[in-house]
Amino acid sequence: MALMKSKDVPKDAVVLNEEEAISYVWDLISNWDSISDVWALRYGPTFLGGLNAFSGILINSHYRNKLKLGTYGFYSSVIPITLMPGLMTILFHRHIILSDMLLMKKDTCPVCYEVKSAAIQLGFGVAYPMILGPTSALMFAHRYNTYRVPNLTDGVTGLFQFLKKITKRFHSTLAFLTVMQLVSSSVVTYFEIRNNVTFRRKLLEIEKELEDRES
Predict the structure, then answer these.
(1) CA pair distance 20, 117, nearest whole angstrom
(2) Which of 82, 109, 134, 141 could be joined to 56 by an S-S link, Cβ 3.0–4.6 Å?
(3) For 112-129, what is each residue's pLDDT tens digit?
(4) Does the global pTM surpass 0.85?
C-alpha cells in the first residue's frame, strides 16, 4: 500500500493519522529486503547519535583530566554528557528530519534538511557537552578537592578566565569535532534523501505491478 496525502479519500483507502502513518513507513523500511535502498534511513540516526556520544566522551574526558578527577563522579558525568547527547540526537533526527521527510509534510528543500540536521548535530554534539562538561568537572573538583578552582563567590570573571585557560589546548580538537559533525550530518542526510526517493519510487512500482496483476 502506497502512503500519500489526499483531500479526496478513495473508497478503498485506509485512513491513518500522523503517528500511524510514520509507524507504518518505519515498518516498511525495517522489513525492506534490499538494505542498499534504505541503509541511510535505517542506520543514519544511530551513526550520528554514536558520533555525538563520542564527541561527549572527548569533551568530558578533557575537563575531567585537566581537573584530575580520576574516578570521582565518573558515572554522574558520563550519563548526561555522553549517553544523553547520543540518544537525543537519534530521537531528534528521526522526529524532526526523517519523519518530515518520509511523510512529505511540506515541500522542504534538501539544503533545509541538511541545515536542520547540522543544527541538531552541533547542538547535542558540541554545544550541550561544552556547557555541561566543564560545569560538572568544576563541581566535582570543588566537591572532592582534586584541583584548586576559583570560587564562584569571588566573581564570574575569574571563573571564566580559568575555563579559558584549561580549554585553550582543546581548541584544535573542538574545531575538528565541529567540522566532523557538519560533514557527517550533511553526508548522512544527503544519502537519507536519496534513500527516500529510491524507497518511494520502488514502492510505487510494486503497487503498480500488483494493480496490473489484479486488472
Answers:
(1) 24
(2) 82
(3) 999 999 999 999 999 999
(4) yes
